[in-house]
């Protein structure tokens, strides 16, 4: 009975949906995390009577066909790139992006990765890195004598050196933007890399060319909404239960047929 196989695809799709929701909930406190959502498509249809086919020699046609689908599949889990809440931390190297754009970091394998996580640190050489020690692009080194480090809204990094009365510019932060941000590939560790779907990175300074501005001493939190995720979880559970009931109903129908024989 096809109903068994159709309902099994529904259970499999909702199982994947629950996995996506659980990952969102697990990352509610992950800096710069962007929630995902599951998208579904119906499967191929078996045509028993095709709509528009001729039904008589006089040229009459079927106004509606007879077709039965094969179920459902999970086709994509795009990320929702909306702004997360911005919370103060008072750390001078914590930087939040308010608007569009990604920080750029150098991966050990030579690739450039992109992140919304602005919780930066200084390594032993004074270079600004992310939490994994990957240097930001373009590279900025903060000398040991630097005091009162400041990062402006447009990404200019300045500090007072050797008790000077005027600040010295240490570097300029830049942001990358993409035509299709949902096409970025997730690497984990709050990092993304570009793909053919995302398009090439469009690099510019903050607060220009559709890039957001920067806030020093703040971090962008996850954009996961706990109420929405719980509601989606309940809906997925009920959909899973209904597909399971279809399997039970189909099994009872097959049992009744076998008893009749």
Structure commentary:
- The chain has about 260 residues and is an alpha+beta fold.
- It folds into 2 domains: about 1-30 and about 40-75 and about 225-260, no CATH class; about 85-220, no CATH class.
- It contains 2 helices and 20 strands.
- The protein has helices spanning about 1-25, 225-260, and strands at about 40, 45-50, 65-70, 70-75, 85-90, 95-100, 105, 110-115, 120, 130, 135, 145-150, 155-160, 170, 175, 185-190, 190-195, 200-205, 215, 220.
- Strands 8-7-11 form a 3-stranded antiparallel sheet, with no helix packed on it.
- The radius of gyration is 27 Å and the shape is elongated.
- The protein starts with a helix and ends with a helix.
- The mean pLDDT is about 90.
- It is found in: Bacterial flagellum basal body.
- InterPro entries: Flag_bb_rod_N, Flagellar_basal_body_rod_CS, Flagellar_FlgE/F/G, Flg_bb/hook_C_dom, FlgE/F/G-like, FlgG_G_neg, LlgE_F_G-like_D1.
């Amino acid at each position: 009975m096809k109903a068994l196989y159709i309902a099994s695809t529904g259970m499999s799709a909702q199982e994947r949906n629950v996995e996506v929701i659980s990952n969102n909930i697990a990352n509610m406190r992950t800096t710069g995390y962007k929630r995902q959502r599951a998208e579904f498509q119906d499967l191929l249809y078996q045509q028993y009577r095709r709509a528009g086919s001729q039904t008589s020699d006089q040229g009459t046609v079927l106004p509606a066909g007879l077709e039965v689908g094969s179920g459902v599949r999970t086709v994509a889990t795009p990320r929702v790139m909306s702004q997360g809440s911005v919370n103060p931390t008072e750390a001078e190297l914590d930087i939040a992006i308010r608007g569009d754009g990604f920080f750029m970091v150098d991966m050990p394998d030579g690739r450039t990765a992109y992140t919304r996580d602005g919780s930066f640190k200084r390594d032993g050489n004074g270079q600004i890195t992310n939490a994994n020690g990957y240097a930001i692009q373009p590279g900025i080194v903060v000398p040991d004598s630097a005091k009162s480090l400041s990062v402006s809204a447009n990404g200019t990094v300045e500090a007072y050196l050797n008790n000077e009365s005027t600040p010295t510019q240490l570097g300029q932060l830049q942001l990358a933007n993409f035509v299709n941000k949902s096409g970025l590939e997730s690497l984990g560790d709050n990092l993304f890399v570009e793909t053919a779907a995302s398009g090439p990175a469009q690099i510019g300074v903050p607060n220009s060319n559709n890039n957001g501005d920067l806030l020093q001493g703040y971090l962008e939190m996850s954009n996961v909404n706990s109420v929405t995720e719980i509601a989606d979880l309940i809906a997925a559970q009920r959909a899973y239960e209904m597909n399971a009931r279809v399997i039970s109903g189909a099994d009872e129908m097959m049992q009744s047929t076998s008893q009749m024989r």
